[in-house]
Structures are given as structure tokens and as C-alpha cells.
Amino acid sequence: MNKQNINKIKLFLMGLENRFSENKSIFKSIHINFKDGLKDFKGIGTYEEGNIKYNFSGKTQILPINSLFNELCEDLSKYDSVTISYIERGSHILITGDNKNVKMTNKEVNEEESLNNENSQEGSLGHINETSTLLNRDYYIKIGKADDLLKEIGIMTKDGKIKNDKIRKYNQIDRYVELLEGILDTLPEDSTINILDCGCGKSYLTFVLNYYLTEVKKRKCFFIGLDYSKGVIESSKTMADHLGYRNMKFIASDIKDYAPDRNINVVISLHACDTATDMALAFGIRVKSDVIIAVPCCHRELLNQYSYEPFKHILKYGLLKSRMADVLTDGMRSMFLEAKGYDVSVVEYISPLETPKNLMIRALKTGDERQSIMEDYESLMKSLGAKPALFKMTNESWLSD
Q1: Which domains, and CATH codes, for the chain?
Q2: pTM: predicted TM-score of the whole model, two decimal places
């Protein structure tokens, strides 16, 4: 290859070197194909602890990205042409060069991948239509493009079909992304979104959000999964390794013992039992999280506390008192968040036919604390003769700055 076009390729590689330094966590691989006449000489590089593990002509080296590109440029003069495929999660940069021309293109997937995805989607959708249980909607987590994710979290079979007994779960995770997309779009685009999942469990929705933000929305993000169970933490770490999701970490810890090492933009809590939801909300308030998302589970704490004289003839029925306690618990949680400066919405997450615990509380930090709402909240506590866990937790020592 002539010197002039080699220099053009060097400029493109300088850009890739900067890109790698900024986006190491989403780098997947680099494929290099030299041509000399009719002969091909192929090299492949994968991520190795901040460097590139590069195999070419039977030789494997661990190289910093700049050293790899220096070697590549030295080799260019020996060959007629080169094709360099730099692959990240959700994007593919292709550099081609010969003695006549040098070109760089940036696209989500290459033509071969698109064809495979279309074929995969056609087969999967055919299977789905047989079940007639998927929603009539344009899915956010699309079959074909998200197959690796869906297989890893157990929703899709190895041959690319949604499992019959996981269709409901597929609908739930997609609905989750739909409800969070708009509120996450309000966060600044020029910085990394740090998301803390409290009581992450198997972390399915964390993986789904990671995929969607990184590969669909092209947003820089980092996820922290927190759970006191070492077993589920190790399971989540294994799934992250399988998927190559390096922009996340999992910690076996109680939220009371966790001290974040970075600014937390989003706190999420899914189906945390009883006051565990309050603990996540209180933590989000304490760290001044921009967004707090909670899908509460069971409500026991307020049931045995509250009473209300005007409703005494209604609340004597245990079932009605229990349902009222559910409404009061989530209503007072939302009211407290408003008092702390959040704009709050309470929406239906999934159909009540699937589970009665189907509410999602979405809170977006929009301003300073609202003293008038806090006064109304405290007045309501007095009327009910109850002191909710969220109110108490914001005054406990483990939540003090």
C-alpha cells in the first residue's frame, strides 16, 4: 500500500485510539484482514484488562492499543489492501484501504449481521405468533438485535426462539424499559449515567437497561448491583462476563453498609419486600439521586400502625384495611419524595392480572425541598397515628452525611 494512503489510515487509527481510551467498557473486538494478491492474512484482537489480546499469523501478544496500531501501520506497506473492523457494543467501525482509496464508515451492524438478525427475527416472531400472547407493540428490546442478552437471561432458547413460559417476562422487561426511557432521557447526555440497583437479585432488568442504554440509545452508563446474597451476586458477575458487559459491577452488601465511590444518578428498586423499598428510597434521597424508580412489593409495616377514626366502620374489615394500607404506603412514599424536591408519578407497571403488586413510582429531582408538603405529610402521620419507615430512615444515623 502506498505511503499516502497509509498516512490516511494512521489518522483514522488515532481516532480509534482515543475512542478506545474513552469507551473501553463497551469495546468487543477488532478484526484485521490484510490482502496480498489472492492471499488473506487475518488477525483478531479482544479485550484483556485494558489492553488488546492480538493473534496474528499464529502469534498472540498482549498489547496496548497504541502499540497494536503501530504494528499494524508498519505491516501496511507489505500488503495490497487492508480491512479493519472495530466492533463495540451496538456499533461497528469499518476502515478499508488500498492503493486507490481509504474509507471509514460507522454503522450499528454490518450487512452480514443485519441479515442474520432479520433471519433470526423472522424465525422468532413466527414462534411468537403461534403463542398469540405477545403484546401488539413495537418492542424496545428487539428480537434479533438483543438475542445474546435474551438468551443469557433465559428468555430465549439457544436457537433463537422466545420460550413459551417466558413470554410474560419478556413483556414485563420491555414495559420496564418503556416506562424508564422518557425519564432517563432527561439526564445530561455529556456524562456517564451511574445507576444503582438496590437488592438487584438476578439483575435481569439491570442487564436489560444496560443493553438498551448502551447499544440502542448510545449513552455512557455504569451499573452497580447491590444485594446481600453472595450467590446472586456471583451469578450476576458470571452473566456480565458472558455478555462482555464491563460497564457494571456487583457487590454483596447490605445497603446500610454501602458507601458509593461515584455520583449516583439513578436509584432503582424492583419488588423489594416491605421496608426494603423504603430503604432504597431513603438512600436515593440521601445521595441526591437525579432519578429514583421503585416497584414496591409487599406492604406490612404500615398495616399494624395506622388507624383513622372517620373510617373505623370500614377499616374493621381486615381485607379493606390491608388494601388501604397498600394505598397509604405508596401514596405517602410519593408524597415524601415530593417534599424532598422530586416530581413524582405513580403508574401501572404491568397488568393487575399478572400481579397485584404492579405500581411503579417514578421520581425526578426537579428542585429544592418543599416545606409545605412536608408539613402536610407530618399532619397526615399524626392523623393516622403512624410513622412510616421512609420518614424514620431519613433521620437515622446510617443515612447521615
Answers
A1: 3-108 (no CATH), 110-172 (no CATH), 173-399 (3.40.50.150)
A2: 0.87
- Are 332 and 380 in contact by the 8 Å Cβ rule? The answer is yes
The β-bridge relationship of strands 91-97 and 102-107 is antiparallel
Output the average pLDDT for the chain. 89
CA-atom Rg of the chain in angstroms: 26
CA–CA dist 33, 40 (Å, integer):
7
Beta strands in 208-287 (DSSP E): 221-227, 248-252, 266-270
The tens digit of pLDDT for each residue in 241-296 reads 999 999 999 999 999 899 999 999 999 998 878 788 999 999 999 999 999 999 99
Which of these, 261, 249, 254, lies nearest to 221 by C-alpha position?
249
Q: Integer distance in angstroms from the first to the last C-alpha of the chain? A: 62
| C-alpha cell belonging to residue 6 | 497509509
pLDDT in tens, 198-256: 999 889 999 999 999 999 999 999 999 999 999 999 999 999 999 999 999 999 999 98
Residues 82 and 26: their CA atoms lie apart, in Å, by 24
User: pLDDT over 70 for what percent of the chain?
Assistant: 89
Cβ atoms of 16 and 69 closer than 8 Å:
yes
- Report how far residue 169's alpha carbon sits from residue 355's, in angstroms, rounded to the nearest whole number: 12
Q: How confident is the model at residue 136 (pLDDT cuts 50, 70, 90)?
A: low
The β-bridge relationship of strands 27-36 and 39-48 is: antiparallel
Q: How many residues does the chain have?
A: 401
Burial of 361 (0-12, 13-18, 19+ CB in 10 A): buried
Res. 401 pLDDT band, cuts 50 70 90? very low
Is residue 251 packed enough to be buried (19+ CB in 10 Å), middle (13-18) or exposed (0-12)?
middle
Helix residue ranges, H only, 244-388: 275-286, 312-315, 318-339, 371-384
